[in-house]
Design brief:
Elements: H1 2-28, E1 33-34, E2 39-40, H2 49-54, H3 56-67, H4 72-85, E3 90-91, E4 94-96, E5 102-104, H5 112-125, E6 130-136, H6 139-142, H7 156-166, E7 170-173, H8 175-181, H9 197-210, E8 221-230, H10 233-238, E9 246-253, E10 259-265, E11 268-272, E12 297-302, E13 310-315, H11 323-326, E14 332-336, H12 345-351, E15 356-362, H13 363-366
Parallel strand pairs: 6-7, 6-15, 13-14, 13-15
Antiparallel strand pairs: 1-2, 3-4, 4-5, 8-9, 10-11, 10-12, 12-14
Helix pairs in contact: 5-7
Length: 376
């Protein structure tokens, strides 16, 4: 009798537990974005016979259930903690480094020759302007001393050397300055894959020195912390939620500026007097504070500069925190993200009488970036 009562209590407990998860799952269905992972969740898939027979429908349904599982973030965090306790030093291609540094792995590139050919082809059509290439190593190369013991990775420096030796126009090497100043200021966020504003400043100095341009010293800027709660992409990849968040710093010239920014998003043009979008500081994607995330085309005019120098920046998101420094040197800066900009860049150069170009890419996305291969 007591035994039946025991099993009945277990049955009631699990029935309540199942009902609880069903109810909480139904609430989660309406959530389509994960703040922790900074990505859109799988929506409920539309059924078709073709998608069912190909297995696509089942896969999407599985992803939908996984993405909306109750307390998903909590369980993912527990999973990561258990893996760390078991001695794991790498989660989702991210090394767990010392000093709470998360270091994204770098794989052997396969498109280096193709990238070189694309750049040289671009140069042949635009030899009349001053062209520059800046390749930025990621944290794993500059902070390699923080890697776990016996961790192995492929050197980004070898690929940088190969590209710089084979392109037909000027290259700007920022490796030494990042290594040097990394002992003074953090050059990379600990929990995100981007470089910091300090790193962007010193890379800007390298650009100016390579092109014989004047620049403001770091003491000519008012440096303010705009947030101390930045949990970036690597935080989301590893689900390690107990690390101290990063801070983001803003460099504001002490001299008066007059900037006009046009964010061109298809037919929509948003005009602003700021290169910073403060509303992003209230979201997970705080790095988008710089130049409004990934916009196809941005036009920046410095109304206090009439030198008629016009720079075109072809870039990934690393450039977003560097571009504001360049407004000191150019009357106009035109920013194109070729992942989203679909018109002819060569025609754009002619139309807007561009005088200089800068290709700026970080090494971890260079090999797989879809936009760079469409510039021609």
């Amino acid at each position: 009798m007591e035994k039946n009562k025991y099993f009945r209590l277990i049955g009631i407990f699990f029935s309540i537990l199942v009902l609880f998860f069903i109810l909480t799952f139904s609430f989660n269905i309406n959530h389509n974005f994960s703040e922790n992972e900074n990505r859109y969740l799988q929506s409920f898939p539309s059924f078709s016979w073709d998608s069912f027979t190909s297995g696509k429908y089942i896969k999407q349904l599985e992803n939908f259930i996984t993405d909306h599982f109750s307390f998903r973030d909590f369980f993912m965090g527990i999973k990561s903690e258990v893996e760390i306790l078991l001695g794991k030093t790498k989660i989702n291609s991210v090394f767990l480094g010392s000093d709470e540094y998360l270091l994204e792995d770098y794989n052997l590139p396969t498109n280096t020759e193709r990238f070189i050919n694309v750049l040289n082809s671009f140069y042949l059509r635009n030899k009349h302007i001053n062209n520059n290439l800046m390749l930025v190593p990621t944290s794993i190369s500059i902070n390699s001393s923080k890697l776990p013991l016996f961790a192995s990775y492929y050197s980004q420096f070898e690929t940088i050397d190969e590209i710089y030796q084979n392109i037909s126009f000027a290259s700007i090497d920022v490796r030494d300055t990042l290594l040097e100043h990394n002992n003074i200021y953090p050059m990379y966020y600990r929990l995100d894959h981007h470089w910091t504003t300090y790193a962007a400043y010193y890379a800007y100095v390298s650009y100016c020195e390579a092109n014989s341009l004047s620049y403001l010293s770091i003491n000519d800027y008012l440096i303010t912390e705009v947030t101390d709660d930045f949990n970036g992409t690597l935080y989301s990849k590893t689900n390690i939620y107990n690390y101290q968040p990063d801070s983001i710093y803003l460099f504001t010239p002490k001299t008066q500026t007059d900037i006009k920014v046009e964010y061109v998003k298809g037919e929509e043009v948003i005009t602003s007097d700021s290169m910073y979008v403060y509303s992003y500081l209230e979201t997970k994607d705080k790095y988008s504070f710089f130049l409004d995330n990934n916009v196809p085309l941005i036009k920046i005019t410095n109304n206090k500069n009439n030198n008629n120098k016009k720079l075109l920046v072809i870039k990934d998101s690393y450039a977003n925190s560097l571009i504001p420094f360049l407004t000191y040197n150019y009357q106009e800066i035109h920013v194109i993200d070729p992942r989203y900009y679909k018109n002819s860049i060569t025609e754009y150069i002619k139309t807007y009488e561009i005088t200089d170009s800068l290709f700026l890419y970080n090494m971890n996305t260079l090999d797989t970036d879809t936009g760079i291969y469409s510039i021609n």
